Amino acid sequence: MRLPKRVPWSDVSEVEQLCSWVFSPEADGSTKMLAVNRLAAWRVSVPLPHALESTLSLLIPILQDEDSTSLCSTLLLRQSFSLALIRMVNGLVDPLQQGAYARSIASIAAQIGLPLWLVELRHASTHEELPSLELLREGTREAMSWLLRNFFLPTLSPNSGGETVQTMPSSLQPTLLQYKQLLKSTIRDASLKNSSKPELLRILQAFELWISEARVAASTITFDVQSSEDDDEKEKWSLEQFCEGLIGRGGLRTNPSQGLDVPIPQHIALWSPLLLHMYSRHPAFPSALLSRIFVHLFSISKTKSAHPGPTISDPVSTFDPSYDHALASWALWIINQWSDDPVAECDREDTIRELLLGLGRSDNKAARALLDSLTEYDYGLRDAVGLLSSSLQPPSRSSTWDDDMLQIMSERLISLRSQINNGGDNYNSFSDDIEMSDEFDQPEKPLIQKVEKIRGWQLLDERHAWKPCPIGMYKRI
């Protein structure tokens, strides 16, 4: 759950008024001065969001430039515009540099929809000769327009979403293919292991950059790039997207066998360097990978009973027992590898609990085989889990009424009536004492002392303190 955040305005109407003071066609120097004064007052009470801080930094040189009586020189205006643009670009991009490897400012700016020429303007203002005043004015107008589209309009109309660009990361499959080709060559020829280390490091770095792009995509969903309160959620989301690509058809696979076991040594040698590297950089990776495996195993859309035919939109979700077997094998390897590590959050008992819950929703042979493998050497746990798993049946999806159902119900009703009519000794087996309430407890004429526990429906009569009454009413005796 995301915690509430302090904002400087008491009502969104104040933001709407501020927006009109700055961006309306009737806005002039006096209204922009009102906006500067309000932003300055807000900054005293609470830290401003970076978008408002950038708006204030850009408005000050704009007012200086529009004031004909101002004594500011051209050089001073160029420095003021340059500083405001530098702070705006850095404040948007720097919080997103959270990966193990640094990304270029241009790539992050492109992902959040920031014009690239503003990044070039920021670079020239920082490392080269100051740009001309005309170029800085044009850059400031572009920056103010970007803030209007990506902050003010989404804040005033959250459902519209503005024009914020939400660029998803590129496909993971090409990088996975490069990784597989490199590792297969080193497995076949051990002499290539040392010479291939630089290339392997480059590919692992590419995976880290992909996760950084996914974090940026998670940040741009709510234009909250400068906040660190939900960093864990962004990390979790980016790892889930990575695991989704990793367990795809071009990712983790293993050869089917008679019983469920960990993947064969060749496949472990192929994928363990990547899995161990991801765990060293992201301790929550094993838990995220295990979670995505369970999502695919228990996906209702891929079960035979729900959809006999293939799913066109998602080829991975089609019913494929060998694919489920491969995922379950890797799940077993993950648990054996990290179940004793509290940081990885892959506890064996928690995993068994998740499997039981999943089997209650959707039956899956690979998941049942995984459950048997996890409880194989713990006889007490195996018996308890076996009793529970045998009673777990996925919900029936039949929507047609069968005449045999009515016959079964009639037979059950006849059986119940015969047991009740026999009375006497039949109630002595499997019975418990019932404490009657004061309203029914009459010593001179007790109602019932013993009642048989019968599974299913029971036919009550006056001996059970029941009398007929209209449906939906409770009638006291």
Walkthrough of the structure:
By secondary structure, the protein is mainly alpha-helical. The protein has 17 helices and two strands. The protein has helices at residues 12-23, 29-45, 50-66, 74-93, 105-112, 116-127, 133-156, 173-188, 197-219, 231-246, 265-281, 285-297, 321-338, 348-361, 365-374, 379-391, 403-422, and strands at residues 431-433, 450-452. Strands 1-2 form a two-stranded antiparallel ribbon. Helix 1 (12-23) packs antiparallel against helix 7 (133-156) and helix 4 crosses helix 6. The longest helix is centred in the N-terminal third of the chain and has 24 residues, at 133-156. The radius of gyration is 34 Å and the shape is flat. It starts with 11 loop residues before the first helix and ends in a 25-residue tail after the last strand.
Helix content: 55-70%
Low-confidence spans: 222-229, 301-317, 426-454
Enumerate the strands of the largest sheet in spatial order, edge to edge or round the barrel. Answer: 1-2
H/E order of the elements?
A: HHHHHHHHHHHHHHHHHEE
Largest sheet composition: 2 strands, antiparallel
Number of beta strands? 2
State mean pLDDT (0 to 100 scale): 76
Count of separate DSSP helical elements: 17
Q: Structural class, please?
A: mainly alpha
The fraction of residues in strands falls at under 5%
Question: What is the overall shape?
Answer: flat
In short, what is this structure?
It is built from 17 helices and 2 strands.
List keywords for this structure.
477 residues, mainly alpha, 2 strands
